[in-house]
Each structure stands twice: as structure tokens, then as C-alpha cells.
Amino acid sequence: MFRVTRPLNHNALLAFDMEDGREYLVVGRGVGFGRKPGERVGREGLAGAGDLQLYLLTQQVDGRGTPRELVERIDPAVLDVAEGILEDARATFGAVDPNMLLPLADHLAFAVTRVRDGGALSNPLTEDIRALFPREFETARRGVSELERQLGVTLGDDETGLVALHVHSALDSGHVEQAMQVAQLTRACIDAVERLTGAPIDVSSMDYNRLMTHVKYMVTRIMRDERLSIDVNEMIRSEAPQSYRTAQAVCAEVEVLLGKDVSALEIGYLAMHVARVAGER
Hints:
Elements: E1 2-9, E2 12-17, E3 22-27, E4 40-41, H1 43-47, E5 53-56, H2 67-73, H3 76-93, H4 101-116, H5 126-132, H6 134-151, H7 156-172, H8 176-197, H9 206-223, H10 233-239, H11 241-258, H12 264-278
Antiparallel strand pairs: 1-2, 1-4, 2-3, 3-5
Helix pairs in contact: 3-4, 3-6, 4-7, 5-6, 5-7, 6-7, 7-8, 8-9, 8-11, 9-12, 10-11, 10-12, 11-12
């Protein structure tokens, strides 16, 4: 049995669990609708709202503070938008990690404060994030539009890109920092290819998108200590030596940024994609 201590919005409330003697943030579609402080409701009554997520108010959330501290400083409307983004992601992709709710809401709250204070975020990886995670970016864009509708605050594409990283992290139980690393390494690869060719890459080309996708999965393999089994190094070193050297340099940067060894087999496969974009084969 729960005792409602504070309704936050239609989809969230604070409630005291009378069985274990602890207070929780309860999140779920419609869970807070019509609830009053002091009202008692069984777990079944709350579950009637659909899938629930309970956050113990004294538990630390990813170094950001406790749920109670986050709830105190986050506008309930922002929390509602964050829940809506995860619901959108669940409808679009399937299962998502519900533990991403509070970090996402906290990020949105800081973004809203920054804009209201006249600050502007510059995210040089926005276009890379859009290309790497297009569906996540669209999910984030819909959420940012809803935030603008509710609060009258326009965040822009640079913030949308960072929200997209939160969405991506909620899909694979990873961290926003890891998704950012993927985008950074992809940008390093693109920069290296542009230095090689002396010209900007056509971001609308199929070869560009293949390169982006390859780097994304390459970084994922390295993080998971997975290995390729086929060696194309000799062939690509002979056919496209400049692209091979570029791939070597990028893989060296990957090792530094991730703190992990990169299999030599990765160089050849990356060089194949670099060569296509650079027009070397």
C-alpha cells in the first residue's frame, strides 16, 4: 500500500510505501492523474496506469544527486517531457532502459535554464550525431518540440543532438559518454579523410553513410572486446595506401580515446570505407 505524498504531474508522483517504510518517485502513464496528497492506493491501483518505474528517493542517480534532490530542482513539466521522450523511444524502438529518465530530465532542466539565462550551447558533433543515430535524433526532436510547446523554450539542433545521445543510451543500456565517444571518433575519421582528399565529404553520399555506420560498429566492437576474423590488410594496403595510413592514424586515436587496444584487422576494414569516400578505389 502506498500513501501519496506529492503528485508531480499526470505521469509522476511521490509516494510512501507503507510496507517497506521508504518513499519513492513513481513514474508511469497517468499514475499521478487526480491523485491527492495523503491518498492511499494499492500497488495494483498504481499499476493500472501501465508500466511503472520506482526510484528510491535516497538512492544516488549517476552522480547527479538523489531522486528527491532532482525532483526538487526539476520543473514537473520537464520531467513530463522526459517521460514522453522515453515513451516515444519505447514505441519506436521497443524496450528502453527506464533508469535513463532522471538523467535525461536533469539534462533537459539544465538546458532550459541555460537558454533562459541567455546561454547558447555549441555542439560541433550535431551533424555526426544526426547521421549516426537518425531515428534517435528524430525522437529527440519530437521531445524538444514538446518542451517548446509546454515551456516556450527553444533548444535548437545542438541540444537536440545531445538529447539524441540520451535516447541512444537508453536503448543499449550504455552511457551518454560512450555515445559521445562514437560521435567524436567518427568526426575524427571524417576529418582525416577530408585532410587526405583536401575536400569536404559529401554528407549525403551513400559512401559517407557507410563510413559513419562502420565507425559506429567498429567502436562498439572495440568497447565489447569483439574481434574480426578476416584479414584484408595486405590487399587494401596495396590498393589504397593513403587510405590505409589514414585508417592507421584513426585507429591510433581510437586507442588513445578508449584506452583499449585496437585489433590490426580493424585497420583494413576501416581503410576500405575510407578509400571509397576518398575515391582511392
